[in-house]
Specification:
Number of strands: 2
Distance between the termini: 40 Å
Order of helices and strands: EEHHHHH
Radius of gyration: 23 Å
Largest sheet: 2 strands, antiparallel
Strand content: 5-15%
């Protein structure tokens, strides 16, 4: 499974008026290792290798929008669900049904206990956050304000 999150828009190329988007993706470690090795072999950045792979997957030439294609290549997807997906879904449904049979007071007590355990396990102090910006200028203004202590 690949998760893609758009972090930023409006990065322009030096040679062409192409708009780029920055993405964050989650891929298996061995796939990332293979992509990095291929990038080193071709003396190209990782993003170029991923872009080319997407172009091949989508059947598009560089700079060609999807609207101009009459028949993009078809890629066959695996027919069955991911490994153990049905078992996990069934277990989650059973867990949810069991929790819903509990009285509201017991569900609240368990939620509060879980929150207490989470605070003990990861005390406040260092927090991770993802912040998205529409443009680099927005990011730059945010960074300046943060450095100024505003």
């Amino acid at each position: 499974m690949v998760n893609i999150v758009v972090i930023s828009d409006m990065i322009h190329s030096y040679h062409a008026p192409v708009t780029y988007s920055r993405v964050s993706i989650t891929v298996p470690a061995e796939l990332l290792t293979a992509a990095d090795q291929r990038a080193r072999e071709l003396d190209r950045p990782r993003s170029w290798v991923v872009s080319e792979a997407l172009r091949v997957y989508l059947g598009r030439a560089p700079g060609v929008s999807g609207e101009g294609l009459s028949s993009p290549r078809r890629v066959s997807e695996p027919g069955g669900p991911a490994y153990a997906a049905t078992e996990v879904a069934a277990a989650r449904a059973r867990h949810l049904e069991a929790d819903l049979r509990l009285p509201p007071a017991e569900r609240l007590r368990r939620a509060e206990e879980l929150g207490r355990l989470a605070r003990e396990r990861q005390p406040r102090g260092h927090r991770y956050q993802v912040i998205g910006f529409d443009t680099y200028e927005d990011f730059y203004e945010w960074k300046k304000a943060r450095r100024a202590g505003v």
